Amino acid sequence: MPRGLRRFWRSTRTARAISIVSFLVGWQLLIPLLPTALIPTPFEVGEFMWAELRADTLAPETVYQAFATSLRRLVTGFGIALLIGIPIGLLMGLFKRVEEFLHDFVVVGLAMPSLVWALIAAMWFGFVERSSIITVILASVTFVIINVSEGVRAVPKDLLDMGRAYGTSDLHRVRHVVLPSLMPFLFASLRYGLANGWKGLVLAEIYASTSGAGWTIRFWYDARRAQGVIGYALFFMIFALLAERLVFRRLSDRVFRWRPSQDQPPPEAEGSVQVNI
């Protein structure tokens, strides 16, 4: 195989393109086998999505307005979840009594379906914006707490003992020892907490809102437009991929730039001399 073709075949972009094409082909081939005529073809969904991107829609909100509303709620709710979850996670990781006191509540929160939070918020506050924001908080805060607390417990005990031996304060050890070691776990809490908060937000907008991307899905469902439901589901997927590539990956590369790249040889391998025996 020529070198250029082999490089093209091994490219990660080629693998992604093949996966997308395979998904669309499998979708098209599966439709005749389904016992319903309500599932639209990829072309019909693509036509709907293109019309939505041109703001040519029958829905009360364009796709841009719907996602802007949802993103505002998501950022507000998840920001509050971080402000609540990080201190509680630190306290649970640093103090055994706090961990014993809150452990069962955190486990229950992790096991609670986001749909339940959405319905509870709707009953408490009605069809208002804060219902969606509170659902995001309840659906994501326990993921932040558990990841931060596990990260604190993963800090090497020798580093903390060394800090105590040098007479440093508790606040100094938390700032210069615990928090740097906590960064991988904090990034995990950002990813999983935000993903769970996003799913909770969609459910809250379906059942307890009159605007947003989730409510627009409900609008197309009530209108019996399957291409609208599937099209907005694909919009969610595209948004998740863009957030991963443009936000989380770049932020991770910046924060963890001290880590050696997998594509680079280890430092000891650079400039080494190979000896044939």
Q: Count all strands and give the number.
A: 0
Instruction: Kindly provide the name of the CATH class of the domain at 69-211.
Output: Mainly Alpha
| Separate helix tally | 11
Question: Which structural class fits the helix and strand makeup?
Answer: mainly alpha
Order of helices and strands: HHHHHHHHHHH
Classify the fold: give the CATH topology of the domain at 69-211.
Answer: MetI-like fold
What proportion of the residues is helical, as a percent range?
over 70%
* CA gyration radius, whole angstroms: 24 Å
Strand content: under 5%
Distance between the termini: 33 Å
CATH architecture classification name of the domain at 69-211: Orthogonal Bundle
Mean pLDDT across all amino acids: 80
Task: Please name the fourth-level CATH homologous superfamily of the domain at 69-211.
Answer: MetI-like
Main sheet summary: none
Unreliable spans: 265-277
Could you say which overall geometry the principal axes of the C-alpha atoms support?
A: globular
Brief overview, please?
The chain is mainly α and 277 residues long.
Question: Could you explain the architecture of this structure?
Answer:
By secondary structure, this protein is an all-alpha fold. The chain has a domain of 143 residues: Orthogonal Bundle (MetI-like fold), CATH 1.10.3720.10. It has eleven helices and no strands. The longest helix has 39 residues. The two termini are 33 Å apart. The C terminus is likely disordered.
